[in-house]
Design a protein that fits this description.
21% strand; 47% helix; single chain; alpha+beta
Length: 156
């Protein structure tokens, strides 16, 4: 069983008290050396704001009135992972799902582009689904979105 402590305000964990203090000390050192300069990402009128805290990374989307939406806190993620997630969300917020153009905000990131096309295929399938309630339309889109993706790939 591990020892869990709070050492100068930072949690630490280890097999012994000494290891738990070392763990907390390492976290304190990382927090002191971290870059706390916020990053702003803008895309087609939408904006994401990403910033570091001693506990991890936080991000939010800025509304038209300049106010932050809900704040998302993540720990254990690398800053680049959060940035990629925000870029995808901004691309989706401004998406024209009838377009076959790759949003420039995703260019150069094959994994994000593939994920974006999966999302677009689902959106197109959902919009083409037979009448029904939201649950039925969602199920139909899940079952048929790959057909839409294959059509998109042939067109590209």
């Amino acid at each position: 069983m591990n020892v869990r402590i709070e050492y100068y305000g930072m949690p630490g964990e280890g097999r012994t008290l000494t290891e738990a203090k070392k763990d907390a000390g390492a976290k304190i050192e990382r927090a002191m050396n971290a870059n706390y300069t916020p990053k702003v990402i803008q895309w087609r009128g939408n904006m994401a704001l990403i910033w570091m805290t001693p506990q991890g990374i936080e991000y939010s989307y800025v509304h038209e009135n300049g106010k932050l939406g809900g704040i998302c806190s993540v720990s254990g993620w690398e800053p680049k992972t959060v940035e990629r997630s925000c870029r995808m969300n901004l691309a989706q917020l401004a998406a024209d799902v009838t377009s076959d153009e790759v949003p420039a905000i995703l260019e150069g990131d094959k994994g994000q582009i593939d994920a974006y096309w999966d999302w677009v295929a689902f959106q197109r399938a959902y919009r083409s689904s037979p009448e029904g309630d939201v649950s039925q339309k969602h199920q139909w889109a899940c079952e048929h979105c790959m057909e839409f993706k294959q059509t998109m790939l042939k067109a590209a």
